[in-house]
Amino acid sequence: MLKKNLLHFLFFLILFSCQKTESIQQPVNRKAIADSAVVAFQKKIYKTQIDSIVNQYHFNGSVGVFKDTIELYRRNNGFADFVSKRKINDSTIFSIASISKQFTAVLILLKMEEGKLTLDDKASKYIKDFKKKEYENITIRQLLNHSSGLNNFGEKLLFKSGSGFNYSNDGFNALGKIVETVSGKSFDENMIELLKKAGMKNSSTGTSFTGENFAKTHVGNLKNQKPVDNMPKRLGNKEIGIAAGGVLSTINDLLIWNNALYSGKIIKPETLKKFMSKSTERQHPILGKMGYGLGIMMNDNKPVSYFHSGYVKGAPSLNIYYPETKTSVIILSNIADEEKGKSASFRPHLKIKEIADILENIN
């Protein structure tokens, strides 16, 4: 029904924008009029639909939808801290979990641009622990697109490197060590430099964070919840790792990141193409079948989009970018009812993505 109504609206919008009226003496920018009307209608649709989802699922977190820098929808709902009743606002900083992987991937790509490594270099060239026979042929590219066969470091490979897909946090933490080796600086230092380069003034890592406005992560529901201990410092623990899932950010900063990254302002256009090109295929446990590039996921079908989900205990997140319209859809939360499973925690994220996909498909 939503798609049908949108198609009817756009049909009449086109008719309206193409009409010639004798009373208009000056040239009319019909495209600008049509674009403005479309934006107004998108704002209305997003507000009606996403507000309904926020209310239905009792969503606690932040949602932002932007067309380039134009805000189509924005809502902060609930508490950053359930004990003090501190409310979520535009400055609230969230754990973005595995959305962090695209930042780590970009750091690797920047080191490639500097001539300090190549994607087909073996990880064993930079990490002593990879010199063991089973790991010695794993390449940087295979770590980036999860085709290395690595699951947990120290275990037997799940398949011959380059022949399959297995999502591995340890693989991305190995990439973090490679960044340290070729730069001579800690991973935190490298990441902070990248965040500053992108213009993300309110982002950091879990181990370097010293500010305020952090959204404490919780497990449970709105009636009965408890905070996750030692956040955000615990993101640096072995079972997570900063390179795999330790970046902290805000809706505004992720918008800045999306616009800068996909416009070629952070890595060169030819490097960006490598980052965005499908090189493996993933069956995501929640989002389904998709392509995977170098630290980023993409739709196999229309609309064209690049995205990554993230989950650490109590923090489900999703960041989507639609390049054809330069639209960002960013959904960050700080509570998850783990007894109901991750699918339940991501239900509002998926519903919002479905609405965005419909609107993008009729552009």
List the helices and strands and how they pair.
Blueprint: H1 2-18, H2 30-56, E1 61-67, E2 70-77, E3 79-81, E4 86-87, E5 94-95, H3 101-113, H4 140-144, H5 169-183, H6 187-198, E6 204-205, E7 218-220, E8 225-227, H7 242-245, E9 247-249, H8 251-262, H9 269-276, E10 280-284, E11 288-292, E12 297-298, E13 306-312, E14 315-322, E15 327-333, E16 335-336, H10 342-345, H11 347-361
Parallel strand pairs: 7-16
Antiparallel strand pairs: 1-2, 1-15, 3-4, 5-9, 6-9, 7-8, 10-11, 11-12, 12-13, 13-14, 14-15
Uncertain regions spanning at least 5 consecutive residues: 11-24
Determine the structural class based on helices, strands and strand pairing. alpha+beta
Helicity range:
25-40%
The portion of residues forming beta strands comes to 15-25%
Strand order of the largest sheet: 2-1-15-14-13-12-11-10
Overall residue-averaged pLDDT value: 92
- Tell me the number of helical segments per DSSP (H or I, 4 or more residues long): 11
- Would you list the SSEs in sequence order as H and E? HHEEEEEHHHHEEEHEHHEEEEEEEHH
Total number of beta strands: 16
User: How would you name the oligomeric state of the polypeptide chains in this document?
Assistant: single chain
CA-CA gap between termini: 17 Å
Instruction: Calculate Rg over CA atoms.
Output: 22 Å
Specify the overall morphology. globular
Largest sheet: 8 strands, antiparallel
